[in-house]
User: Which sequence fits this backbone?
């Protein structure tokens, strides 16, 4: 299999649903609707390291480096929904019970199908997969329409890349997870801006802003 392609079974091998990208191609903004997702958001020091890595990768792969303030790892993608349903998403976020955990980002990969270069983990911890799977199951239970897709935890670093980055293992970057966030993606002419709607802390860890 072409290594650049997404595998059938990701490191979190359980199938779990992920929402269709409804309205994804539409540049028209509707004030009564919003595009949302749950994600891990790196603290500033980690975001800086990831951004340095993104720039190093882009120097080889070409394409567009993600802005430092937009770097994240998606847990569950909801897509375009009526704004009045955001409170339901917040309720789902608040029911998650998890304790702090850490993992290493130690891989750099490229998917040819969507031309993104991303950082990921060769050994994603069960806690990460469990958080994503539970979120998506509960979203489904709450009536959000989700599609079947494997969960491959990743941080997109470069979009529209033209070739493989020259290196595929990296000096491990440690990510300590103390919380996760609900994010609104606001499309602009220059790409997406992200707004953190709500932060959900681990049961044993205070999470700062
Ligand atoms: P990507 O970086 O791999 O494109 C905001 O768009 C976030 O949601 C990004 O992390 C993006 O992943 C992710 N995303 C977009 N569409 C998605 C989909 N249909 N399923 C899962 N994640 C999606």
Assistant:
């Amino acid at each position: 299999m072409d290594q650049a392609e997404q595998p059938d079974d990701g490191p979190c091998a359980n199938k779990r649903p992920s929402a269709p990208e409804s309205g994804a191609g539409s540049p028209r903004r509707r004030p009564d609707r919003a595009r949302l997702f749950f994600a891990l958001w790196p603290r500033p020091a980690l975001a800086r390291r990831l951004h340095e890595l993104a720039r190093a990768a882009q120097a080889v792969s070409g394409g567009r480096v993600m802005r430092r303030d937009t770097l994240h790892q998606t847990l569950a993608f909801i897509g375009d929904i009526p704004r009045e349903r955001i409170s339901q998403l917040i309720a789902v976020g608040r029911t998650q019970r998890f304790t702090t955990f850490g993992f290493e980002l130690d891989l750099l990969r490229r998917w040819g199908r969507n031309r993104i270069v991303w950082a990921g983990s060769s050994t994603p911890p069960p806690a990460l997969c469990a958080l994503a799977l539970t979120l998506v199951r509960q979203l489904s239970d709450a009536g959000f329409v989700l599609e079947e897709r494997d969960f491959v935890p990743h941080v997109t670093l470069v979009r529209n890349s033209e070739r493989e980055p020259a290196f595929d293992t990296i000096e491990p970057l440690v990510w300590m997870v103390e919380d996760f966030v609900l994010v609104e993606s606001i499309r602009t002419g220059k790409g997406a801006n992200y707004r953190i709607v709500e932060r959900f802390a681990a049961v044993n860890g205070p999470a700062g802003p």
Summary: The chain has three helices and eleven strands. The pocket of adenosine-2'-monophosphate is lined by residues 18-19, 21, 37, 74, 77, 116, 149, 156, 185 (CB under 6 Å). The first strand starts at residue 12 and ends at 18. Residues 32-201 form a domain with the Cyclic Phosphodiesterase; Chain: A, fold (CATH 3.90.1140.10).
